[in-house]
TrEMBL record, chain A:
Keyword Chloroplast: no
Biased composition (Polar residues): 23-35
InterPro entries: V-ATPase_116kDa_su, V-type_ATPase_116kDa_su_euka
Coiled coil: 165-199
Function: Essential component of the vacuolar proton pump (V-ATPase), a multimeric enzyme that catalyzes the translocation of protons across the membranes. Required for assembly and activity of the V-ATPase.
Disordered: annotated span: 1-53
Organism whose genome encodes this protein: Klebsormidium nitens
Sequence similarity: Belongs to the V-ATPase 116 kDa subunit family.
Membrane protein topology class: Multi-pass membrane protein
Gene Ontology terms describing biological process: vacuolar acidification
Membrane spanning residue stretches: 494-517, 538-556, 619-637, 649-675, 703-726, 831-861
Protein name: V-type proton ATPase subunit a
UniProt GO cellular component terms: vacuolar proton-transporting V-type ATPase complex; vacuolar proton-transporting V-type ATPase, V0 domain
From TrEMBL, chain B:
TM region(s), chain numbering: 6-24, 36-56
Subcellular location, principal: membrane
UniProt keywords, alphabetically: Hydrogen ion transport, Ion transport, Membrane, Transmembrane, Transmembrane helix, Transport
Localization (cell): Endomembrane system
One Gene Ontology cellular component annotation held by this UniProt entry: endomembrane system
MF GO annotations: proton-transporting ATPase activity, rotational mechanism
Pfam families cross-referenced by the UniProt entry: ATP_synt_H
Family: Belongs to the V-ATPase e1/e2 subunit family.
Protein's recorded name: Vacuolar H+-ATPase V0 sector
Lineage: Eukaryota, Viridiplantae, Streptophyta, Klebsormidiophyceae, Klebsormidiales
Membrane topology: Multi-pass membrane protein
Organism this protein belongs to: Klebsormidium nitens (Green alga)
Length: 892, 71
């Protein structure tokens, strides 16, 4: 996985000597880095004063060493080995002293490697007080502009092409200038085109008003003309009768007395037109006349730019007061008014004008759009590169803000965690950065000793990551404690399959998981939606789950609840040749035991359920006890690794004895009973082991000396409880008192590196000179003991969920098969068969494949988190989050 | 096939699994150890279920009683 020979820096290439790669298995992190390093190890306490002097000395020394060495040649020194998931990687707190001119390059190169987690050395400063706050702000501003461009590009339905990196790499200032220029250009184009569009839609509306209202007027005028003619005719007729109608004459002859009707034209949204009419009617007390004509196609409203269904209206009214009222109402209803000349000639002229201006505007808008599209297309080629660049720069400046600046401002000091195996890689990157930024001095890289707990880091791949996530959903492991994930990879799908044992369902699931795995390349790193993303993330887990389900399905002899005698004909035959009593006394076992799984003879028999109940219940206990013992043994490896003998003698061993003498013994009894065929009642045996020790009833005797063994086991269990409770706190107290007596050394010497880290439990990792509260430790141990003793019973009982769920799965699939599919087939009606099959299919998919899968998954999860992991897992660590450019995109 | 023969078969299957990982997917000692852990855990799990079911049927205390017609 690690490259053996890294590319070395070219001309001025200088290589730091890799530090102590052999220290791969030092037990505790406290004392790592204390052996003979060639560089001066600067401790945090002494860091301030002598640093620069030591630095200068060291640089001089190193130059000499390089001169003697003759530059970089040959492969890198031995790469330290990794922990491969059994424990988290060994970490080292390191300090980097970076020359100011190389800082940017250095951080950038480290981000490419992505194996260093920077510590925030300016935690007390707010975001604005930091050195590079300005640059971060600029980057944020640029990111905003880029988002704006992206938005515009998407609005314009243009495609963002990736990988259009034709231009040379821009630096930040150039890019900033370019982006600002582009933004102003785009904004100007946008505002212009908006103005144009507004006047265009205004003109369109005006045109509509001219058309529609024009038609009212011509209609009205035609009607009026006809009336006039009739009137004139009647007048002519009546003249001869020599009785002039005074009123008519006056009306015709004295136009000044005619009340002039005013009118307003415009457009009102169709949805509002009815209320508009009503309000107008009320406001003018009915003294108005409204004509509405709906426009066939929705028009663009000039104010909002949205498409609205509208009506053209003409309101006639009398008087100036009515006019002001109507104008106000129009305003309130968002009705746009347009001037409308009464004179038909003027109308025509206006119409022609409007049409001419519209076509003119259209060409202008088109030209503007073309220009805008051109700008956006050229941006679309670059935007991905620019976005990536800005993101990188922002991350770099953000990281630089976490470094503390030396007083002289000549160099920056960084601190951070890195895995020990990555040290050569990091040093190489530092070299390259120094060379590429043509810095005269290269970065100084040195380990620091600390009592702080390092972060937890596992190197996972696409297969193991989902299992690691299952574990970390409970809690991130304490640094270097035993990781349950290597076992979870197998035991999790296995326990799932115990509850989901059906090889038909297993095959369906296998197909689904193969589909997910097959589309891996296509879907990797894409957004798939919540549920799909979850399934895709756990695709390898689902794959293993399905494989184990097929296996346990074969063991349970279940295939959609159909019987398949695969491995032999079965061990059971009739008692008599005519099989007369097969339904009363039952079959009898004549042949050899069915070689693999449950005998097919049980299938559909009356005694199937009692047999499977007993089998699956005992199986749950056996599997549970096995898994719990695995957990306890992992606690042994933890104690061994952290060198805590107290935990071995007074936690691990009593726990094994306690669990072994109760539930280990029960498991043994179950096996003995099966092998011997005894009819002993195991409940009875277990209960009377406590109630009347030393006596065993004759019919419950499973092996010789059972009573004696039970007494011994009972005694062992009773002794184990105080052994778990008392000795460890007492021993810790004695150690504490002993260390107090020669504690004066530590204070005078001022050297904290030599302090003994062992002899304390992990909870008190910060040294015994802090404070020692005996009562607290005792209470803690008491809780731990009570939890274990009660947990031994309740956890074993908890594994019975395996029995319940696997039985429920088998019964449900039997119900769907017999009551739905077989019933439908039994009717003989083809329609019923089709319906029955469809119901069966949906029940199988919906209930068994989805709901049962989820419930079995959850129960397997719980068995791992609670019953398995509480035996050894602390889970109070924190995750290693390196500064890595490849994680940047996920943030947005 | 008796209990011990099948057990031996499981054992062999485990060794074959380890061998396959060793030959076809050799990734260095630490990673190999991880892969062996998986094979061993899987073999033990599978053997355990099989053994439990097998042993439970060696001396059955109840026998299959078939259902009568129409039951």
């Amino acid at each position: 996985m690690l490259p053996q020979g890294l590319p070395s820096g070219s001309s001025a290439g200088i290589r730091l000597r890799s530090r102590d790669p052999s220290r791969g298995t030092s037990p505790a992190w406290q004392d790592s880095g204390s052996d003979s390093d060639p560089e001066p190890v600067i401790r945090p306490s002494a860091a301030g004063r002598g640093r620069r002097q030591k630095l200068a000395e060291w640089v001089k020394k190193r130059r000499e060493a390089i001169m003697a060495h003759g530059g970089p040649k040959g492969p890198l020194p031995h790469v330290p080995k990794t922990m491969e998931m059994f424990r988290s990687e060994e970490m080292q707190l390191v300090q980097l002293i970076i020359p100011a001119e190389a800082a940017h390059e250095t951080v950038s190169y480290l981000g490419d490697i992505g194996l260093l987690q920077f510590k925030d050395l300016n935690a007390d400063k707010s975001a604005f007080q930091r050195t590079y706050a300005n640059q971060v702000k600029r980057c944020a501003e640029m990111a905003r502009k880029l988002r704006f461009f992206k938005d515009q590009i998407q609005k314009a339905d243009l495609r963002i092409s990736t990988g259009g990196t034709t231009e040379k790499e821009l630096d930040l200032d150039e890019l900033e200038g370019k982006l600002t220029e582009l933004e102003t250009e785009l904004l100007e184009i946008n505002s212009n085109s908006e103005k144009l569009r507004r006047s265009q839609s205004e003109l369109v509306e005006l045109k509509l008003v001219l058309e529609k209202a024009g038609s009212f007027f011509t209609q009205a005028r035609d009607g009026a003309a006809v009336q006039q003619r009739e009137l004139e005719d009647s007048v002519v007729a009546s003249e001869s009768m020599d009785s002039p109608l005074l009123l008519e004459q006056e009306m015709q002859t004295d136009p000044s007395k005619v009340v002039r009707l005013g009118f307003v034209t415009g457009l009102v949204p169709k949805a509002k037109s009815i209320t508009f009419e009503r309000v107008l009617f009320r406001a003018t007390r009915g003294n108005m006349f409204l004509r509405l004509a709906p426009v066939e196609t929705p028009v663009i409203d000039p104010q909002t730019g949205e498409k609205v269904e509208k009506c053209v209206f003409v309101v006639f009214f009398a008087g100036e007061r009515a006019r002001t009222k109507i104008l106000k109402i129009c305003e309130a209803f968002g009705a746009n008014r347009y001037p409308f000349p009464e004179d038909p000639a003027k109308q025509r002229q206006m119409m022609a004008e409007v049409t001419a201006r519209l076509s003119e505007l259209e060409t202008t808008i088109e030209a503007g759009d073309r220009h805008r599209d051109n700008v956006l297309t050229s941006t679309a080629y670059q935007i991905e590169t620019w976005t990536a660049l800005v993101r990188r720069k922002k991350a770099i400046y953000h990281t630089l803000n976490m470094l503390s600046i030396d007083v002289t401002r000549k160099c920056l000091v960084a601190e951070g965690w890195c895995p020990v195996f990555a040290k050569p890689k990091i040093q190489d990157a530092l070299q390259r950065a120094a060379v590429d930024s043509s810095s005269t001095v290269s970065t100084i890289f040195q380990p620091i000793n600390t009592h702080e707990m390092p972060p937890t880091f596992y190197q996972t791949n696409k297969f193991t990551s989902c299992f690691q996530e299952i574990v970390e959903a409970y809690g991130v492991a304490r640094y270097q404690e035993a990781n349950p994930a290597p076992f979870t990879v197998i035991s999790f799908p296995f326990l799932f399959a115990i509850m989901f044992g059906d090889w038909g369902h297993g095959i369906l699931m296998l197909l689904a998981s193969l589909y997910l795995v097959g589309n891996e390349k296509k879907w990797m790193g894409k957004k798939l939606g919540d549920i799909m993303e979850m399934a895709f993330g756990g695709r390898y887990c689902i794959l293993l789950m399905s494989i184990f389900s097929i296996y346990t399905g074969l063991i349970y002899n279940e295939f959609f609840s159909v019987n398949f005698p695969i491995f032999s004909k079965g061990a059971y035959t009739c008692r008599t040749p005519d099989c007369s009593d097969e339904t009363t006394a039952g079959l009898v076992k004549t042949g050899a035991t069915y070689p693999f799984g449950v005998d097919p003879a049980w299938h559909g028999s009356r005694t199937e359920l009692p047999f499977l109940n007993s089998l699956k219940m005992k199986m749950s206990i056996l599997l549970g006890v096995t898994q719990m013992f695995t957990g306890i043994f992992l606690s042994y490896f933890n104690a061994k690794y952290f060198d805590l003998p107290l935990n071995i003698w007074f936690e691990f061993i009593p726990q094994v004895v306690f669990l072994g003498s109760l539930f280990g013994y029960l498991s043994l009894l179950i096996i003995i009973k099966w092998i011997s065929g005894s009819t002993a009642d195991l409940y009875h045996v277990m209960i009377y082991m406590f109630l009347s020790p030393g006596t065993v009833e004759a019919e419950n005797q499973l092996f010789w000396g059972q009573a004696f063994v039970q007494v011994i086991l009972l005694l062992a269990a009773f002794i184990a409880v105080p052994m778990m409770l008392l000795p460890k706190p007492l021993a810790l107290r004695r150690q504490h008192l002993a260390s107090l007596q020669h504690g004066a050394y530590g204070v005078l010497g001022g050297s904290d590196a030599e302090e003994h880290g062992h002899g304390e439990d992990g909870e008190h990792a910060h040294g015994d000179h802090d404070e020692f509260d005996f009562s607290e430790i005792l209470v803690h141990q008491m809780i731990h003991t009570i939890e274990f003793v009660l947990g031994a019973v309740s956890n074993t009982a908890s594994y019975l969920r395996l029995w319940a769920l696997s039985l429920a799965h088998a019964e449900l699939s039997a119900v769907f098969y017999e009551r739905v599919l077989l019933f439908a087939v039994g009717t003989g009606n083809p329609v019923a068969i089709v319906i029955g099959f469809i119901v069966f299919m949906f029940a199988t998919l919906g209930v068994l494949m989805v709901m049962e899968t989820l419930s079995a998954f959850l129960h397997a999860l719980r068995l791992h988190w609670v019953e398995f992991m509480n035996k050894f897992y602390m889970g109070d660590g924190y995750k290693f989050i390196p500064f890595n450019f490849s994680h940047l995109e996920e943030d947005e | 096939m008796g209990f011990f023969i099948t057990t031996v078969i499981f054992l062999l299957a485990g060794f074959v699994g380890i061998g396959l990982f060793r030959v076809l997917y050799n990734k260095g000692p630490e990673t190999n150890l991880l892969h062996y852990t998986w094979v061993i855990t899987a073999t033990i799990c599978c053997w355990l279920t099989w053994a439990i079911v097998y042993m439970a049927q060696m001396h059955p205390l109840v026998v299959p009683i078939l259902k009568a017609e129409g039951e």
